[in-house]
Amino acid sequence: MMFKTPLPAPAGPFQVGYVDIMTPGQASTSSLLRIHYPTPAYTRVSKQPVWAGENGQEGMLRFMQTMIWNWPSWANTSEFQLLDLCKKVFTPATFFSAFNIGWSLVAKRLTIPIARSAPLEPHTGSGWPVVVFSHGIGCSRFTMSQLCYQLASMGVVVVSVEHRDGSGFGTHFKDGETIEEIPHLHVPVDGHEYEVRNRQVTHRCDEVLRAIDILDKINEGQTLSNVIADHDHMDLSMLQSSMDLTNHLYLMGHSFGGATVLLASSMDTRVKAVLALDPWMFPLAKQEFTIDKPTKVVNTALFVNKNNVRVIEEASKYNTDVKFEVHQNGVHLSVTDIPCVFTQTWLRKGLGFMNKVMPEKVMVETNKIVWDWLKNLID
Question: Does the predicted TM-score (pTM) go above 0.85?
């Protein structure tokens, strides 16, 4: 039995509470969200949610198995030092078997230092600012928990959307009494790759916009049908009138999530600004859209790709408030929680979780970048 290891504690002035929401219906019309929110500093975080159980382990390994033999277009591979070796030594089947055993032997079982349905810290003014977050390929609503709860600890409501377009490592929906699993979708890198990815980004965009609508309903005190497991322990009423969705609604996304929020921001006037971390723009390569909100794009040095940049520049050619920044420390996956699962430096480097700088340091730096971006907007 593995011991549990908590992720780093919230660094802001508040502890962090959370509620999970799943609305009923098919994946194309329903939502799955985790809402992080500031809770009083004295809040005791005793029963922490598990970061990923056995289903998460299998789902992430299946995703890795798919990626190694089917790398997406416009996604750089230079930081993944073991990629070529894995393809030479393993078949997809033997890779899964070997890494499944390895995960069980060396991986840490993480918990997230947030408290379910903890009391909301009273807000001042018109409510807490809100950031809706979109994850990347192979992730879920909890895979980038540090990015979300660290921002929430500064006094922000942070909503992590779990995308159910097939790009995550695995998820589900509930329609009536039926629970249906959605595994990671294998997308061949061929002449149809763009069509599939474009459908996915459209689906993801709709999920972000539905999340904003759900927040509106919660803020107005409307009753919301929540069919998530343990929904009886998820108190949504405390969030009524707590969010400033009129003046301070922002979007943030990583990788595929970066493309998602850039597209979503062009479709909703309620959004005030966007932060895209290492945006992967291939799914929007042929789509006409306009980036018309204040936008910040932060790339890790090894993920900079002229094709990704070109799509953003074309969509924002009439927008003078688009800023690009390159973060020299870290790699594409440094801002996920995944490096905390594997603490062995050689493994982190081989699987593309770090370069010369430890992921823990990169995470602190990234959280500062995120907070500085938002603080400038809400001050």
Answer: yes
